[in-house]
Amino acid sequence: MNTNERIGLWIVGAWGGVGTTVAVGLAALQAGLADETGLTSALPEFSDLDLLEWSTLTIGGHEIRETTYRAAAAELHRNSNVFTVELLERVGDRLEQFDRNVRVGTVLNVGPTIESLAADSARATARETAWATVERIGRDLAEFRQNNGLDRVLLVNLASTEPPVPDDRLQALRSLNWDDLERRIRDEQPCPVPASTLYAAAAMLAGCAYINFTPSLGSDLPALDELARRQRVVHCGRDGKTGETLLKSVLAPMFAARNLKVLSWVGHNIFGNLDGRVLDDPVNKATKVRSKDHLLQEILGYSPQTLVTIEYIESLGDWKTAWDHIHFQGFLGTKMAMQFTWQGCDSLLAAPLVLDLVRFSEREWRRGGCGVQAHLAALFKSPMGTTEARFAQQFEMLRAWAADVRRNPQRSDAS
Ligand SMILES: NC(=O)c1ccc[n+]([C@@H]2O[C@H](COP(=O)([O-])OP(=O)(O)OC[C@H]3O[C@@H](n4cnc5c(N)ncnc54)[C@H](O)[C@@H]3O)[C@@H](O)[C@H]2O)c1
């Protein structure tokens, strides 16, 4: 990076599986103990974009459970056989530095399953008013920036998946501008938006960028996009595309291009980490299933029968197995099937994507961009700002953005 800017990465869900792997991964990259395999932003075609360097980043965040990066990483190692003991020893001091920046988050409007994970200190936050929560989050971000001499802070939502907002309420929220939504967050009891949206609003009001790696609502409201533009910060989401859905977005266009009619697409997912425990609640699961399911209709232009299951199988730890069965019809009515099995380590697939999102977002923001970043669609299951669901086309959008950054390192419309 040509500037001397210092960048903060603020993780909501700091000590979760993905949050911990981001911290371990960043510390390893900073210490020269890991290579960049798995990072899209490290591809040669993005090497001349002046993306941020790992050494400029520091981590802080919000949590509702009490642990530390060292303890959370050791647990991931024990349960899922990821990281080496040697690596964890060598990055231990840096993880302790990151721990010092973690603050108590909020459990306001997260639903009973997430609330049940929380320590007493975090449970108490449900009694705060929604606006007091927004202000407290803002103060934590300001303190992080000041204590660490940071020029920019990007907040990434890596917290547990919230229950969906009911459709009628969502529709009403979508019709509001920021001033109206702010008034409602200040005045209305119970608060009309979930915690993820309070974090998004607080981040933007504090002049921070916002990235939603989860399927929770976050900044996916016109009012929040308006706020982002007003505050001249970038935002993007929702739900990192790391495994089964990545394959769907690659394979479904193939069936469409060969005029093969998909009759049904069944995807069974089993895994055993904390995310899986939360998604075992049918209410929280509904948010995730929706995020994994909608793209087939968007890509194919019709709705085959679909089934997505997500089951918590504790012994699997962070290792997810997805088995997909695609039943399709070819020439002369002949029915055929394709099946695939995906066995991925969830946090190790997600963490590099988080770092990519931070790098790409920071670059767009630094050149004067603001508002929703549709060109990051290839990295999300339910991308905001575009209806393009095909992976190859989404990747072309990222390439086109890169070409534009090369031509215009500073945007002409930036104030
Ligand atoms: N491959 C992947 O792992 C992947 C892909 C796409 C999306 N996601 C999403 O990313 C999120 C994180 O995944 P994970 O595997 O790390 O889950 P996790 O359960 O291990 O971590 C979530 C963390 O968030 C904390 N948390 C919950 N609510 C909070 C709140 N309101 N404020 C602050 N902290 C809160 C929890 O205590 C926990 O430590 C989940 O929503 C998941 O669905 C993960």
State mean pLDDT (0 to 100 scale): 95
Gap between N and C termini, in Å? 22 Å
**Strand residue content:** 15-25%
Largest sheet: 7 strands, parallel
Bound molecules: nicotinamide-adenine-dinucleotide
- Give the H and E element order: EHEHHEHHHEHHHEHEHEHHHEEEHEH
What is the CATH C-level name of the largest domain? Alpha Beta
> What's the number of extended β-strand segments?
11
Q: Which percent bin holds the helix content? A: 40-55%
Broad shape: globular
Rg over alpha carbons:
21 Å
CATH topology of the largest domain: Rossmann fold
Question: What is the name of the CATH superfamily of the largest domain?
Answer: NAD(P)-binding Rossmann-like Domain
Commentary on this structure:
There is one protein chain. With 415 residues, the protein is an alpha/beta fold. It has 2 domains: 294 residues, 3-Layer(aba) Sandwich (Rossmann fold); 101 residues, Dihydrodipicolinate Reductase, domain 2. 44% of the residues lie in helices and 18% in strands. A 7-stranded parallel β-sheet has the order 3-2-1-4-5-6-11, sandwiched between helices. Strands 8-7-9-10 form a 4-stranded mixed β-sheet. Strand 5, helix 10 and strand 6 form a beta-alpha-beta unit. Helix 1 packs across helix 3 and helix 8 crosses helix 10. It is globular. 49% of the residues are buried. The site of nicotinamide-adenine-dinucleotide has 35 residues, from helix 1, strand 2, helix 12 and helix 15.
